[in-house]
Amino acid sequence: MPRHFFLPLIASLALGACATAPATAPVTANPPAQFEKGVVSAADPRAAEAGAEILRKGGSATDAAIAVMVALTVVEPQSSGIGGGGFFVRGTADGKVETLDGREAAPSAATPDWFLRPDGKPLGYRDAVMSGLSVGVPGNIRLAEEAHRRHGRIAWAELFEPAIRLARDGWEVTDRFHMFLGIRPKSAGHSAAGKALYFDETGKPLAVGTTLKNPELAATLEAIAQSGPEVIHEGALTPALAKHIADNTPHDRAMTQGDIARYRAKERAPLCGKYRVYRVCGMGPPSSGATTVLAILGQLEPFDLASLGAESPIAWHLFAESQRLAYADRERFLADPDFIAVPTLELVEPTYLAKRAALIDSKTTMVTAEPGLDLPPPDGMEPPENGTSHFVVIDRWGNAVSYTSTIETAFGSGLMFGGFYLNNELTDFSFLPEKDGQLIANRIEGGKRPRSSMAPTLVFGPDGKLVLAIGAAGGGTIPVQVARALIGFIDWKLPVDEALALPVLYSPGDTVSVEQGSALEAMIPALEALGHAKVKARRLPVKGNAVVVRAGALAGAADPRSEGRAISE
């Protein structure tokens, strides 16, 4: 698949700040622009075009990101959308960062035995997913509302226009979407609405190239566009949404209208750390993205990866060992900070990471990788994440948004409402509430938000200026994808498209998985010689997007293994 790369012209005007406007009216002021055009990179070209359309209207990076998120509800329904949630990281050209948490929340009646059978054993994963038990209160619309309130430049309703057209007039089924329908037909067709929408009269997935229209979703989006987020959260659709989830929940402690109405996106403190001469910022808990990315990078700081290069098995061995340490801490300590005292700053503190780095040997493998802090509670039992979509925008004023959106696994819970899939994010909680007599950090509780791997990231140079907006999709591999792209970009001086194209090595435990069909397969004997006993080549979920600032210009890229595209305004 060809790489997608865009480089606009350099503008000569000075940088201006992006103004904030109320949700009801656009800003009329036009501050000086740094760039002639902004750039959007998203996992689907039609969603990227939706964001670019908003930029052309004078919209901010925030406006464009919201338009992308809504459009992905239409054209990438298996991965993200308004039935799920996300994390929003915004940065200015001169280094100011803010983060918003739109992660889904458990119903108020949820208790730690939520996923346990009467005999005390956990439910099977699919049994939990394909029901209302897995559905968290969706957060993306509230997240979009709060982001737009702070940084929107054009009217709320305009942000929905590209998605409404796609849903009403139709979009063509792609190879990737057809593949997902084929490998997850029970999820996609779990509801009658999904079966009627995405499968033909014989029950087969719609063929590649088929024009697919979703009038029910178009009507839902029109209602949200005209009447605002309250349509979902405290308005006409709220009772029906709550009832639909409750009707599919196999006990009487289901989600209520009150749960949906109370939900709000939360501002969280951004989490930043240093790698080489760069400042790397991301989303703190309940996301484990920033802590894991910063730990992987910080533990590799003492090693000369630049000299080793991308073709060195030792470089990839070091990367694997650093992952093992970072994921050991992730599994043990990360959870919703409103419920658990997460040692966030301790996990990325330079002295601590230097001690962790001292456990890594370039010539051999650690026998075991254990958490580095002597703190309860222990890790739990969470199934792997699968779905998700990432997109980035840098606007003409130099403001960047890195936004990761998800409904968790492919087609979420399989439950459809208003033409879109509802998430299965609650299965990101531990199915077991305790281990070895101690409560697990990521256990389910009423109102709690599950731990996530999403890692929307911004990078700033030694002068404090924005250099890169990046992120990825692919469940537990997300922090690894981001970290390896940053190593490629910073240590190996690769262009951003080539950094995203690097192969993936994933080693959250004792098994090292290398991307099947990549150059890493040939390194398996060398990795085994370094002591990695379990090295396997397998298909890995890889889907990254980035926009870079270099020499006064913007360049966007998408992972060449995806259908993603970078498009300018």
Termini, distance in Å? 23 Å
- What is the β-strand count? 23
Q: In this structure, how is the largest beta sheet organized?
A: 7 strands, antiparallel
Radius of gyration, Cα only, in angstroms?
A: 22 Å
Task: Give the arrangement of secondary structure elements.
Elements (H helix, E strand, L loop, with lengths): L3 E3 L32 E4 L2 H12 L4 H15 L9 E7 L5 E6 L22 H5 L10 H12 L9 H9 L1 E2 L2 H9 L1 H4 L3 H7 L12 E2 L2 H13 L2 H4 L4 H10 L9 H6 L3 E3 L2 E5 L2 E5 L6 H12 L4 H4 L4 H21 L10 H5 L1 H8 L31 E6 L5 E7 L9 E2 L2 E2 L12 E2 L2 E2 L17 E4 L5 E8 L4 H13 L5 H6 L3 E2 L4 E5 L8 H6 L4 E5 L4 E8 L2 E6 L6 E4 L1
Parallel strand pairs: 19-20
Antiparallel strand pairs: 1-22, 2-10, 2-23, 3-4, 3-11, 4-7, 5-6, 8-9, 9-16, 10-11, 12-13, 14-15, 16-17, 17-21, 18-19, 21-22
Please give a structural write-up:
This protein is of the alpha+beta class and 569 residues long. Helices cover 32% and strands 18% of the residues. The protein contains 20 helices and 23 strands. β10 (389-394) and β11 (400-406) form a beta hairpin. The two termini are 23 Å apart.
